[in-house]
């Protein structure tokens, strides 16, 4: 099953060419980058880096819960980047009695849907959040997921944070795929916010 899943993701990503990358020099450069990225995505070292970044931005977000969306946009959002160029942003706001969690992930020049959704799934798994109802994709190829938690759910979220690196690091990476397989991808007509990179 894991070999089939990886092969399907690999095949999808190798045929994906981003819109606007049509000249041959940049197309070859992008293709080379995508191949290297695709070949390394489901490796122990890469998934380990993803977990480290997820843990870092979770800790930063928990330590700085914004009181409004406006104050969130004025602050420095918790963010991190892997050596392969995956950029992740995570924030929590407390408004009207609820806690709103937002996770965004991207990679320049392009992050294939299979990988974008998988990273959202890894965030769900690592942050101990439920699967989002949907994942939004902006025109700049940034994937966004949102959750709204009650005060009780937020308290559980805080108390049940991650502890240590997952024992089966590759299994954790594949869990990201599993968690988002049936989640609908919706497309935004405009960029979600200023944080799209």
List the helices and strands and how they pair.
Blueprint: H1 2-15, H2 24-41, H3 44-63, H4 69-74, E1 79-81, E2 86-95, E3 98-107, H5 113-127, E4 134-137, E5 143-149, H6 151-159, H7 169-180, E6 184-187
Parallel strand pairs: 4-6
Antiparallel strand pairs: 1-2, 2-3, 3-5, 4-5
Describe the structure concisely.
The protein is an alpha+beta fold.
Q: What does this entry look like structurally?
A:
By secondary structure, this protein is an alpha+beta fold. It has one domain. It has helices at residues 2-15, 24-41, 44-63, 69-74, 113-127, 151-159, 169-180; strands at residues 79-81, 86-95, 98-107, 134-137, 143-149, 184-187. Strands 1-2-3-5-4-6 form a 6-stranded mixed sheet. A hairpin with a 4-residue loop joins strand 1 and strand 2. It is globular. The protein starts with a helix and ends in a 10-residue tail after the last strand.
Apparent shape: globular
* Count of separate structural domains: 1
Spans of at least 5 consecutive residues whose pLDDT stays below 50 are 1-19
Largest sheet: 6 strands, mixed
Q: What is the quaternary state of this protein?
A: single chain
Portion in beta strands = 15-25%
Kindly provide the radius of gyration, computed on alpha-carbon positions and rounded to a whole number of angstroms.
17 Å
Largest sheet strand order: 1-2-3-5-4-6
Task: Indicate the percent of residues in helices.
Answer: 40-55%
**Tally of extended strands?**
6
Q: How widely separated are the two ends?
A: 34 Å
The number of helices is 7
Mean pLDDT across every amino acid position: 85
Give the structural class.
alpha+beta
Give the helices and strands as they follow along the chain: HHHHEEEHEEHHE
